[in-house]
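Practice record 12: protein with heme C.
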Amino acid sequence: MRRPKNQQNEPKTAIPRPLAAAAAVLAWLFSSAFAQAQDTPDYFRQNCMNCHTIGGGRLTGPDLKDVTKRQTRDWLANFLTNPKAVLDSGDPYAQKIFEESRRVPMPMAPGMTRERAEKLLDLIEAESKLPESQFKGLQISTAPFTAADVQAGRDIFTGRQRLASGGTACIACHSIHDIAALGGGLLGPDLTNVYDRLKGRASLSAWLVAPGTETMQPAFRNHPLKAEEIHSLVAYFEDAARYRPADPTGDRVTFLLLGLFGAAALLFAFDGAWKWRFRGVRRPLVDAAHKRGA
Ligand code: HEC
Ligand code: HEC
């Protein structure tokens, strides 16, 4: 009894394709309207803070404290709405801050408009005047590293100590000198020399506050490392940088000697065999000659 009724209803409940498409467009319009309505501090937190502080020092990008005193508002608003175009135009100021940021380009932020740029500059200006901005970022300790810090860093790296905000343990994607036996992940580079590669304590700490690379950024954007975690990890990386692998030339000499020895042995064997064969041919000839001569 119920079946035919259901079948009858089916075409009515299925949304026709054009309607579904229209709904998707509407949803998109609403979500971008929502993005517009999102307040400026939230927008800054989500789109700018992983590269900039206001009064907390440089991260990937410059500290934005008092940026409106370094450049005109017009220039800055223009830069925010299209950083690449300003850089490509050969603008000397854009070139200078690009070089100072180790040639990492400032990206175009999602949903950026002239109006939003103006609001962001208002915010940066207001925050710059405060003794302590809410966008000061993490304050990483500069206390000397202790053996306990190194151990804590190692525990964080290997996942023995879980990351406070739920990030994945480094060992899932990275190896390092002293965990070869545990077998670190291979997705990311070996971090034994990362302390030197990323130019020491301040720079490596800042990098970890806001990892900006392809895999690290999505992995840690919503699970930022805590200041104490960064302190310990950097202690561990500083310690790791002192590690020197066993001199590989020693191995190479052994290998060479073995090779030479092998070659010599082969030559002996070959020589012996050849002599034997030579005698084998020669002896009858000599004997025959002797016989003839005799
Ligand atoms: C991926 C990192 C990154 C993000 C995200 C980012 N910036 Fe930048 N920003 C930079 C870098 C790097 C520079 C230096 C210029 C360059 O290298 O192109 C810069 C430069 C700037 C400057 C000029 C600084 C100066 O000293 O004159 C301003 C202003 C600025 N950014 C604001 C913002 C705002 C606002 C946001 C968020 C909407 C943002 N940035 C997002 C990396 C970033
Ligand atoms: C999901 C995998 C993954 C996890 C988890 C991960 N990393 Fe990475 N990491 C990468 C990859 C891949 C790279 C190479 C750059 C990129 O693609 O982001 C990288 C790059 C790095 C670099 C820069 C290396 C260089 O030579 O430039 C550092 C430093 C780093 N990771 C530290 C860490 C630390 C510390 C942790 C743990 C708190 C961690 N990573 C956890 C995948 C990961």
